[in-house]
Design a protein that fits this description.
The protein contains seven helices and ten strands. The protein is an alpha/beta fold. It has a single domain, classed as Rossmann fold. The strands form two sheets. The protein has a six-stranded mixed beta sheet with strand order 6-7-8-3-9-10, sandwiched between helices. A four-stranded antiparallel beta sheet has the order 2-1-4-5. Helix 3 packs across helix 4 and helix 3 packs parallel to helix 5. The chain is globular.
Length: about 220
């Protein structure tokens, strides 16, 4: 499903180049649950954002479901991302001026889904995640665990084929973190491909395999 070949990314400082990723080659099959691990500064989040098609400044080859992402125009990459990928961030990234209901509706607005169908999908998602009672609240009225639950609900509401999670339990208590990881495990069992960046061996134990980075190099898969 995802094939990376010789992915490299660097920053230039005058005549100097500082590499963040070096010749990363990896493959992730549909339906896998993969963890990306490594010390701080290893390039984990950078790799995740390249896979998520948020970062365009890199070299190498990236194939997503047979499409050559490295050859796509930015607009086409955005369309491919919006159709297929959901994101969960450590800092939640909910829009503070929107209610829970409105935050959940946003990913659906990127697709050609009529309003009545959007309302039905949001209602089903609120029920599935047991947050119906929170639908009219704003993010600052929720606990950290509740905000992350909404973040996961928003990531899956449009039925993405892939969920990318960047330290998804980093700001949560251990019990809340386990709840989120168990939720990921259930989503994966239903067929969603999940790729998470984590420092936690406990979180990594939920995945099928681990990709390890050090100083931008892939050192173990």
């Amino acid at each position: 499903m995802i094939r990376l070949e010789n992915i490299e990314k660097f920053f230039e400082h005058g005549t100097q180049k500082t590499y963040v990723l070096r010749r990363v080659t990896a493959e992730i099959k549909e339906g896998e649950f993969v963890s990306i691990m490594g010390p701080s500064g290893a390039g984990k989040s950078t790799l995740l954002h390249i896979i998520g098609m948020h970062d365009n400044a890199w070299s190498g080859e990236f194939h997503f479901s047979g499409q050559a992402v490295h050859r796509l125009k930015p607009k086409d990459r955005a369309e491919l991302r919006n159709r297929n990928i959901g994101f969960v961030f450590q800092s939640y990234h909910l829009l503070d001026h929107l209610t829970v209901y409105e935050n959940l509706e946003i990913p659906l607005s990127y697709r050609d889904i009529k309003r009545s169908d959007r309302e039905s999908i949001v209602a089903d998602t609120l029920d599935r995640f047991q947050i119906v009672g929170k639908k009219d609240l704003y993010p600052n009225q929720l606990s950290g665990g509740q905000q992350q639950l909404v973040g996961v609900a928003r990531a899956v509401i449009a039925s993405p084929r892939v969920i990318l999670a960047d330290e998804p339990t980093g700001n949560l208590h251990s019990s809340q973190g386990r709840e989120i990881m168990q939720l990921f495990k259930r989503l994966n069992a239903e067929g969603t491909t999940i790729i998470q960046v984590t420092h936690s061996e406990e979180n990594a134990a939920y995945s099928d395999r681990v990709i390890r980075l050090r100083d931008g190099w892939l050192v173990n898969d």
